[in-house]
């Protein structure tokens, strides 16, 4: 039987350059979607999926992330003294979330690229399978995306990528999987990834949209890529490159996620996520709809 997944990595050391100047002082992971920063949505998804060890890989300017999740008994006491019990409980609940997820922090070092933070955290993995989720994604689904990925790994014992159906005209924005076999129920055997192909070259109508179960074999590929980088000092270390190489010779799967994905990495996508969250809120949704109606003009 495949090992139970209990660990997860959240790479959170990026510059957020696509959202500048908004992210000049505020990490993109701390931008709010609803009443919570986007990274809190990711942590909740992991904890709700049974993950008990979360490593957040940060850079030197990301101290606000640690501050958000650390205990603040002084603030909670002041809120209670002011008669704000609901707010005090909300502050304490964030701390409890971090405790249940057993959040630890590591500082990123090494070559540029999204594979590097995974290697930074990998020294504590051993041979365990690990979830990797980006901190600027929000998924709305009945079953958390992380749980869907865990279930797919339990069924296959192999690495798993989160996939969504894709408009072929949008293929230039995504990594597109090479599908070898459709096992049904959204589980696809894949043999590789083509990075941002032209529509006419896209090997399938699915996009890899963030969220992975990686295994020791993927980490080994990342190490080999990093060793080559140190020899030549060129390019970047990408997780998808390691997955692509591994999938060519070993069983690897994609799981089509049942839910709605919101990326917050660009201004337009961030606004889309904000509005979708607000429209689904029982109090804010009616207000926004009223503003959009002719009577609200």
Description:
The protein is an alpha/beta fold. The chain has helices at residues 38-48, 63-69, 73-81, 85-101, 116-122, 145-156, 216-232, 239-247, 267-280, 284-292; strands at residues 7-12, 32-33, 36-37, 53-58, 103-107, 130-132, 137-140, 160-165, 175-182, 187-195, 206-214, 253-256, 260-263. A hairpin with a 2-residue loop joins strand 2 and strand 3. The protein is globular, with a radius of gyration of 20 Å. The N and C termini lie far apart (60 Å).
List its traits:
alpha/beta, 297 residues, two-stranded antiparallel ribbon
What topology emerges from the helices and strands here?
Blueprint: E1 7-12, E2 32-33, E3 36-37, H1 38-48, E4 53-58, H2 63-69, H3 73-81, H4 85-101, E5 103-107, H5 116-122, E6 130-132, E7 137-140, H6 145-156, E8 160-165, E9 175-182, E10 187-195, E11 206-214, H7 216-232, H8 239-247, E12 253-256, E13 260-263, H9 267-280, H10 284-292
Parallel strand pairs: 1-4, 1-6, 4-5, 8-12
Antiparallel strand pairs: 2-3, 6-11, 7-13, 8-11, 9-10, 10-12
Helix pairs in contact: 1-4, 3-4, 5-7, 7-8
